[in-house]
Design brief:
This protein has about 375 residues and is mainly α. The protein is built from 18 helices and three strands. The chain has a three-stranded antiparallel β-sheet with strand order 2-1-3, with no helix packed on it. The longest helix has about 30 residues. The chain binds iron/sulfur cluster (2 copies).
């Protein structure tokens, strides 16, 4: 609950001023702030959507190219398409292992190095722009957003869990993250190198593809359940189960940026809280510190009052400046592209192995 300065309203409100907790609704009722509408049209959602679509398209392209590469190797013909190293972005645990390996040895990995660079780019984006990976880049986040919006259109609303159930469910992703972090944290650099260079580790990406190619009935049921739950519940997977999102949330805790509300011009309409996909009480707080904030800027987009809500640096109010949405988009793009370019330029992007070895390993990965 934020504490606010009450206007001079006479004896009746003087009593209410004794408690700032109770004063807020009273003050809101009596204060008639003049609504000053924003000067410029909000472009944050168009910009974010273009990032989401571009990244979804890129991942589809990578997936299709990877499938054809695997089919060529399986059939024993010389691969007519190259293995897209970007597929390693789908190996977040390998990315975590590689990050630990780099920290321990100060050396870049030789096998699957793209997993390390992509992991680093995504963590950096979230470190700077509060879990922005989830709402700007992640293709699963994009599909999840599409599904709950579709569900809301089909059924008129999304299901909201009561707080007593939502909190323990939200903790599940942190438990999963703790499990993976513990498992990776227990590995020495030599153990990580052995795993990555093992017959299982070399084709771990192909095993992931085979999981979807030869989907068993149990896995199909689980995926169907997740799709249905995502239609009904806002960001079901991201909010409750995704350990990668949990990691991005922890990185976001160190972010120097926050959604900040200027109570002087806020008209207390509550639209921001209603629009927030993470169900955060944006209209009640001065700054959003929650690890659930994904920098989606939906709250900023719907806010009718000029300068009431913005992504800003955490600084004393006099020094605070709103960060325009285009800077967030440009910085996320620069982080991603510069790390990929650096990895390519230094020869740490592709994994190159003889096709005969890959042929053997890929065939055995189907068993
Ligand atoms: S607080 Fe705003 S930016 Fe953060 S998740 Fe909610 S709507 Fe998105
Ligand atoms: S949308 Fe939120 S920040 Fe903007 S005026 Fe309404 S309550 Fe205030």
């Amino acid at each position: 609950m934020t504490s606010i300065a009450l206007p001079e309203l006479g004896p009746a409100t003087g009593a209410a001023a004794a408690s700032t907790v109770q004063a807020q609704p009273l003050a809101a009722a009596f204060t008639r702030k003049k609504l000053v509408r924003p000067k410029d049209r909000d472009i944050s959602q168009a910009l974010r959507r273009s990032f989401q679509l571009a990244f979804l398209g890129l991942n589809l392209w990578i997936g299709i190219q990877f499938y054809f590469w695997v089919r060529c190797i399986e059939s024993g013909t010389t691969a007519s398409v190259a293995r897209p190293a970007g597929v390693e972005g789908w190996l977040p645990i390998e990315g975590l292992m590689q990050a630990r390996y780099v920290l321990l040895t100060r050396q870049l990995p030789r096998l699957h190095p793209a997993a390390f660079f992509l992991f680093t780019a995504f963590v950096l984006s979230s470190l700077l722009f509060r879990k922005s990976f989830c709402s700007w880049l992640c293709p699963v986040g994009t599909l999840s957003e599409f599904l709950w919006k579709l569900g809301r259109r089909l059924f008129g609303r999304n299901v909201c869990f009561p707080a007593w159930l939502d909190l323990p469910l939200r903790s599940l992703k942190y438990l999963l993250l703790a499990f993976f972090a513990y498992a990776v944290g227990m590995m020495s650099a030599a153990a990580i190198a052995d795993f990555v260079a093992s017959p299982y580790g070399i084709v771990i990406d192909v095993r992931m593809l085979n999981f979807f190619r030869f989907l068993g009935p149990t896995a199909a049921l689980v995926i169907a359940f997740l799709v249905l739950a995502s239609l009904l519940i806002q960001n079901f997977w991201c909010r409750h189960l995704c350990p990668y999102g949990a990691l991005m949330g922890l990185a976001a805790a160190l972010s120097p940026l926050r959604i900040t509300r200027n109570e002087g011009v806020c008209i207390d309409c509550g639209k921001c809280a209603k629009a927030c996909p993470s169900s955060l009480p944006v209209d009640k707080l001065l700054q959003i510190r929650s690890a659930e904030c994904t920098s989606c800027l939906e709250c900023v987009a719907v806010c009718p009052a000029r300068d009431a809500l913005a992504m800003s640096l955490t600084a004393p109010r006099a020094l605070r400046r709103p960060i325009p949405e285009w800077i967030i988009g440009a910085a996320i793009g620069v982080i991603f592209l510069s790390l990929v370019a650096y990895a390519k330029w230094t020869g740490h992007w592709e994994t190159r192995l003889p096709e005969e070895i890959l042929h053997q390993l890929i065939l055995s990965s189907r068993n």
